[in-house]
Amino acid sequence: MVSGLNYSTNAKKRWLRLEINTDDLLQVWSFNWGIMDVLIGGKSSIDLQELKVRSWQDATEFLRYYGYDPDVPADAQKIHMVICEAWNFIEQYLMPFEWSRGKQPPSQLLYTHDARDIILAASDLRPEVATTQAWACAVLRVMHTIAHIDGVTKYADIEAARTQVMNRFLKFVFRDQDGKLRFGDRQTSVVLDRIEWKLRKSRESIILKLLHKKANVAETIYDLLGIRIITKKLADVMVVVKFLRDFHIVTFPNCNPSRARNSLIDVESFKHNVDMLREMLEDGRIKPQEFTNILQGLTKPLAAVNSAANPHTAKGYRAVQLTCRQLIRYPNPALRWQEKLRSYLGEKDISEQVHQICTEILQLAATEPQDEQLEGFFPFELQVMDEASAAQNAMGEASHDRYKQSQVKAARRRVLNRVLSLAESAS
Q1: What are the tens digits of pLDDT across the range 347-396?
Q2: Alpha carbon separation from 415 to 410, 411, 412 (Å, rounded)
Q3: Do both 236 and 110 map to the same domain?
Q4: With CB atoms 3.0 to 4.6 Å apart as the test, which of 236, 262, 300, 415 could cross-link to 231 if both were Cys?
Q5: pTM assigned to the model
């Protein structure tokens, strides 16, 4: 048996020597290191500076495996719509001034309806077409972002999700007999200044946010629904967070710990003060009203704020932030046509032939039953802050306008860096 194994191994070595030549070895050990960085190095695909698609057929296969067949009319139309939206986004949000002054992409890219033209241009590394290649890479980055958004949002009933999440909160928001807005239940509650709902995130805002995020995938958009609870007193912020758990408004296993942020309250100091005052209250050294007054006076905001988690958040922004998710159930939209067809069958003026055809269609649909309800986890972002911090956040460096400007600058650099640098060197 040993000699047989040796013979087999030797025969295999001879076969390898005969079949694999220099060209084959070069092909096997040729790597696209940019793609390797995306696959295993943590690099985002939109940060690639080039593609290596060499033919029309290769570009077709690239798109097919991406998810769209450019030779299918419906897919071709979708691709064209994405191209148009991507160019419009670049013009309106990333370089409105330069675009209006004539700094625009080459016409063969701007007016093409076929993504293969853009893919091949992004793969052309000849020096004489460097500007065209840079523009092609730029628009592909935005196109990829738009495609991800469409691929995620179409499978969720976002309005149903927002309604179900909001209802959990609204059960514990009420006015007392003095007209004060409160959060909690009738036995234990805190006074709020207000509660704000961010019910819609514009498509442009989602694209902009994804373009400056490292991962650049639509699943990383957590604030399709945003809730901001603003208390009158700073210490009450901690009570609101406690109530979220006590009243099962959020479930802690469904909170994302990597996205929990506290830039508002020194928790260790707060814990010390609460424990001290609880002991004094139990011993009868202070009265309940004194407990509240003393705690409010001792609770101070953090002296320094670390905003490294989000480079676009101003250093002065103060809040307790949670990213949560809630299981949402909603009617299966695929079944709505069946309901409409059954309703149609109930009408009196239908011919017998039409009635028979409709009945057969429903019978065929019944052979592949679908769930009446769909379900999935819907993410939302929650911020809690006091009235004074909310006023500070709305001013100066912490304002939303500055935050948005920072996002635009980051997205502009990421998408158009080579386009702009080539233009500067040419001028």
Answers
A1: 767 788 888 888 888 777 777 767 777 777 788 899 999 999 999 888 75
A2: 9, 6, 5
A3: no
A4: 236
A5: 0.67
Q: Do 135 and 229 belong to one domain?
A: no
Residues 394 and 266 in one domain: yes
Which residue, among 183, 166, 163, has the nearest Cα to 174 in the 3D structure?
Answer: 183
Listing DSSP states for 48-80 in one string gives -S-----SHHHHHHHHHHHT--TTSHHHHHHHH
∠ CA(179), CA(180), CA(183), 5° rounding?
130
320 near 390, Cβ under 8 Å? no
134 with 166, same domain: the answer is no
Q: Measured in Å, how far apart are the chain's first and last C-alpha atoms?
A: 76
173 belongs to a structural domain = yes
Q: What is the rounded radius of gyration, in angstroms, for the C-alpha atoms of the chain? A: 30
Residue 427 within a domain: no
Pick from 351, 361, 264, 251: nearest CA to 304: 264
Place of tokens 């039409």: 354
The pLDDT tens digits for 164-215 are 999 999 999 999 999 999 999 888 899 999 999 987 777 788 788 778 776 6
CA quadruple 127, 130, 131, 133: dihedral, nearest 10: 150
* DSSP H or E segment with residue 226: strand 226-231
Return the structure tokens found at 247: 């009243």
The 10s digit of each residue's pLDDT in 154-169 is 545 778 888 899 999 9
Total number of domains constituting the chain? 3
Decide which of 130, 154, 178 is a domain's last residue.
154
Q: Which of 76, 245, 217 is nearest to 151 (CA)?
A: 217
Please report the sign of the dihedral spanned by the C-alpha atoms of residue 279, residue 285, residue 288, residue 289: negative
Amino acid at 195: I
Burial zone of 109 (CB within 10 Å; 0-12 exposed, 13-18 middle, 19+ buried): buried
What Å distances lie between residue 176 and 57, 235, 248, CA to CA?
69, 20, 22
Tell me the residue range of the domain where 345 lies. 333-370
